[in-house]
Every structure is written in C-alpha cells, then in structure tokens.
Amino acid sequence: APYFNGQAFNLRSFLTDFETLADEAKLDAAQKIKYLPRYTSYRTQQYWEQQDEYTAGTDWDAFKAKIISLYPLTYDSLSYETEDLEALVHRSKGIPIGSLEDYGRYHRNFSQIATWLQTN
User: Fold this and answer.
1) 3-state DSSP call for residue 93?
2) Percent of the chain at pLDDT exceeding 70
3) Per-residue three-class SS string for 48-67
4) Treating both helix axes as pointing N-terminal to C-terminal, what angle do 82-92 and 100-119 enclose, rounded to 10 degrees?
5) Measured distance between the N- and C-terminal CA atoms of the chain, rounded to whole angstroms
6) What residues contact residue 58 under an 8 Å CB cut-off, 6+ apart?
7) Quick check: 15 and 64 in contact, CB under 8 A?
8) Tens digits of residue pLDDT in 81-97
9) Fewest C-beta in 10 Å: which of 7, 37, 44, 93?
C-alpha cells in the first residue's frame, strides 16, 4: 500500500499511487476521500481530516487540490541552479565511493540535478 511520509516532494507520487490503486478497487470519490488520510502518520491523518474538503466528503478533486496546497514544495516546484550541482560535486570530492550502492546514490543525485538543468 502507498504511504505518505510527510515529505512534500513525495506527495505527487503518493497521490498517483493511491489513485491508481483506488481506481483499480473501483472506489468512488467519497471512499477515496475517506481512505486517503489512513495512509499517512497519525498526525497527518488528523490534519487532513480537519480540512473542509474532507468533511464535505464528496469532491475528490477538491480534496486532492487542498492536500497539494498544504505542501507548497511539491516535486513540481523543485528547481535547481548550477550552484547546486557544483555544491554536490564539492561535498562529494573527498568522500570515496566504496560500493556500488554509494556510486548509485551519487549518480542519481548528480543526474537529477544535471537533467533538470539541461531541460530547464
């Protein structure tokens, strides 16, 4: 089952995963609204359930939009500057890559920034 860990940059993928599974289970809008908060921490669940769109309980798109608005730094707003790439290289310069896992982590971080810079 999908789980939202409270990190804003994970929200879009969490919602996409939830919607995919909810659609496969043929949940209606009210059921999606009811069940979504259950896939978060207790605190987040309580917060989401306090929103007017949750209480109304019928408009999935409005509830989803409200949840997204609570996390202004979603993946869509993530941006980088050349300095971010330079900082990553500088931070990593003295750290040996001791395993394939270390290399993979560095490569993913580098590629994420570099790809964003190339396409924007």
Assistant:
1) coil
2) 95
3) HHCCHHHHHCCCHHHHHHHH
4) 160
5) 34
6) 29, 30, 33
7) yes
8) 898 899 889 888 888 89
9) 93
Tokens encoding 19: 């919607």
The residue ranges of every structural domain in the chain are 8-75, 79-119
Q: φ, ψ for residue 6 (rounded to 5)? A: 90, -5
How far, in whole angstroms, is CA 49 from its chain's centroid?
Answer: 19
Distances (CA, A) of 55 to 31, 45, 73, 107: 12, 13, 25, 44
Q: Is the pLDDT score of 47 beyond 90? A: yes
The two three-digit tokens of residue 82, written as one number: 């050349």
SS3 of 24, please?
Answer: helix
Phi, psi of 58 (to 5 degrees): -125, -20
